[in-house]
């Protein structure tokens, strides 16, 4: 079983809608949680980090963490076609490595 | 450009050859990470340096792989006797102590024929 699970998608949403991306992880000792955006052929770009339970908002992005349920999500409000990309969930433990999920491909249709 | 840089951006080699990749982190970052990413998968951790010390290595890093960061600045990743299964994007990332992990470079795409 993979340590970080994401639905591979594609998740298709219309322009202006809210896109909801989900991630579950298996290591209860995980301490840090990240969302990266990756355009095709490019390297991952960090868009959100979250360390404690609850919500964290940054512009159109909101990350949500529920450690009891081992669940992390990313909401993208007012989705734009430029948001079309693969979104990678990454989980950090007490060490320094990140464990990534396989990514969810998001398609925002005009 | 003060981001993470990697060289070369693309490398095509024949099976059995050795290849070396270079990563220049953001100048004030003392932490450096190497990851490998294959098509359709998320990046997989390979190794981590704090300054010049290699502090963590993944089981993925077989004895054909070696990484160095001799002066705590740039890093090199060498793959000896390349195999077709080594074909992937090799990503370098850097961060500062206590900072978010991490800022990725553009990657080196390796194709082993």
Protein architecture, described:
The complex is a heterodimer of chains A (110) and B (113). With 110 residues, chain A is mainly β. Chain A has strands at 4-5, 11-14, 19-25, 32-38, 45-50, 54-58, 61-66, 71-76, 85-92, 98-100, 104-109. Chain A is globular. Chain B starts with a strand and ends with a strand. In chain B, strands 2, 4, 5, 6, 9, 10 and 11 form a 7-stranded mixed beta sheet that branches. Helix content of chain B is 0%, strand content 50%. The chains are: A mainly beta (110), B mainly beta (113). Chain A binds chain B through residues 4, 8, 32, 34, 36, 42-46, 49, 88, 90, 92, 95-103, and chain B through 31, 33, 40-45, 48, 50, 55-56, 58, 89, 91, 100-107.
Principal-axes geometry of chain B comes out as globular
Broad structural category of chain B:
mainly beta
Q: Beta-strand level of the residues of chain A, as a percent range?
A: over 45%
Radius of gyration of chain A: 13 Å
Helical run tally of chain B:
0
Report the span from N to C terminus of chain B. 33 Å
Determine the fraction of residues in helical runs of chain A and give it as a percent range. under 10%
> What is the number of beta strands of chain A?
11
**Could you give the distance between the termini of chain A?**
36 Å
- The multimeric state of the shown protein is heterodimer
Helix content of chain B: under 10%
Q: Give the low-confidence spans of chain A.
A: none
Based on DSSP secondary structure assignment, what is the total number of beta strands of chain B? 11
Overall pLDDT confidence of chain B: 92
Structural class of chain A: mainly beta
Radius of gyration of chain B over alpha carbons? 13 Å
